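INFO batch 0412 | record 1 of 1 | parsing
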Amino acid sequence: MQYDGVDNLQIMEKSKIYNHYLLQLLENTLQTTDKIVLDFGAGTGFYAKQFQRNNPKREIIALEPAENLNDFYEQQNIKKISSLNEVPQVDLIYSFNVLEHIEDDQTVLKQLYGKLKDGGHLNLYVPAFPCLYSCMDKKVGHYRRYTKKELMQKVQTAGFRVKKCQYKDFAGFFASFLYKILGNSCGDLNPVALKIYDQYLMPISILADKLTYGKIVGKNLWLEAVK
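INFO prediction complete | emitting tokens
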């Protein structure tokens, strides 16, 4: 398979505050028993590389089936695989903005459940609010944006116990709404606008997430579940 949103991925990698926030969400959930970690839908390997750098004693496995992203892994000291069939039993699975790319997400969630050890954890970060679906979602191959109820039901149906499900990126909700109305028709991200958002609005968004406890709105949903 091929992934069509490589340019958007590379632009997003420059969002330092945003990316630090995502990694911090993940690392806040880490337990001493999390020895083998799976990055499901690792893209260019950006997050897997950062996670490995921060946690050198843990084994990180990057699962990415898109063949046109293979070149990004040539000089990275990360174990890359292309199929869930290759995944061993792991302690933790995390996924940043991936599940929405999968048409039959329910089947995949069940397969992820099978790859976790008993007591293992699943952490998901996905786009929220179907009303925000835009040309950018279409360009990168999103089948959906999730409601909180839908995401929790699908994860529970797969066998998991949901520990937490919160909205994240408060300001991003309003920015995404404006993008849908005023953005370009090709679905491209504006690097300058993204840099401004990351530097000036993302800190406000992080503070708002804390103050609202993720209960009101957000561009994304963050879910933590256990097997």
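INFO post-check: The chain has eight helices and seven strands.
INFO record closed
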